[in-house]
Amino acid sequence: LLVFLALALPGSQGRIIPRCEMVRILRRNGFEGFQGGTVADWMCLVKHESDYNTKAYNNNGPSRDYGIFQINSKYWCNDGRTSGSKNACHISCSKLQDDNIEDDIQCAKRIAQEARGLTPWYGWKNHCRGRNLSSYVRGC
């Protein structure tokens, strides 16, 4: 079972970031070794959360996950529809679905820092943790 539904918003498909481009983005933004994770960990997370799609979203009952890192509206962003949203990243969830992922990166790093790792992401816990992830970065 996948933890996400890579659905496009009406009239817009989103950008699918090519694998090696995503590896370069993560390396350039200091993800190697960040909170004990590797770029391969983050690549596996992004693959299983959003399939590299900047416009991915997933309904979770009262909340929703947004963007390439599937950031949740109950805790991290404000979508205007999730009651009691904490908006800890101080960002509109819609900003997590544009093709500029700089703000997504800042919020994902904040989540990992607060959690001291990647455990908030079920895609990572269910598909990546404790596995050989070298194929996610091979050739990049």
From TrEMBL:
<dbReference type="InterPro" id="IPR023346">
    <property type="entry name" value="Lysozyme-like_dom_sf"/>
</dbReference>
<keyword id="KW-0326">Glycosidase</keyword>
<dbReference type="InterPro" id="IPR001916">
    <property type="entry name" value="Glyco_hydro_22"/>
</dbReference>
<comment type="similarity">
    <text>Belongs to the glycosyl hydrolase 22 family.</text>
</comment>
<dbReference type="InterPro" id="IPR000974">
    <property type="entry name" value="Glyco_hydro_22_lys"/>
</dbReference>
<keyword id="KW-0378">Hydrolase</keyword>
<keyword id="KW-1015">Disulfide bond</keyword>
<dbReference type="GO" id="GO:0005576">
    <property type="term" value="C:extracellular region"/>
</dbReference>
<dbReference type="GO" id="GO:0003796">
    <property type="term" value="F:lysozyme activity"/>
</dbReference>
<keyword id="KW-0081">Bacteriolytic enzyme</keyword>
<dbReference type="GO" id="GO:0042742">
    <property type="term" value="P:defense response to bacterium"/>
</dbReference>
<dbReference type="GO" id="GO:0016998">
    <property type="term" value="P:cell wall macromolecule catabolic process"/>
</dbReference>
<dbReference type="GO" id="GO:0031640">
    <property type="term" value="P:killing of cells of another organism"/>
</dbReference>
<keyword id="KW-0929">Antimicrobial</keyword>
<dbReference type="Pfam" id="PF00062">
    <property type="entry name" value="Lys"/>
</dbReference>
<keyword id="KW-0964">Secreted</keyword>
<dbReference type="InterPro" id="IPR019799">
    <property type="entry name" value="Glyco_hydro_22_CS"/>
</dbReference>
<feature type="domain" description="Glycosyl hydrolases family 22 (GH22)">
    <location>
        <begin position="89"/>
        <end position="107"/>
    </location>
</feature>
<protein>
    <recommendedName>
        <fullName>lysozyme</fullName>
        <ecNumber>3.2.1.17</ecNumber>
    </recommendedName>
</protein>
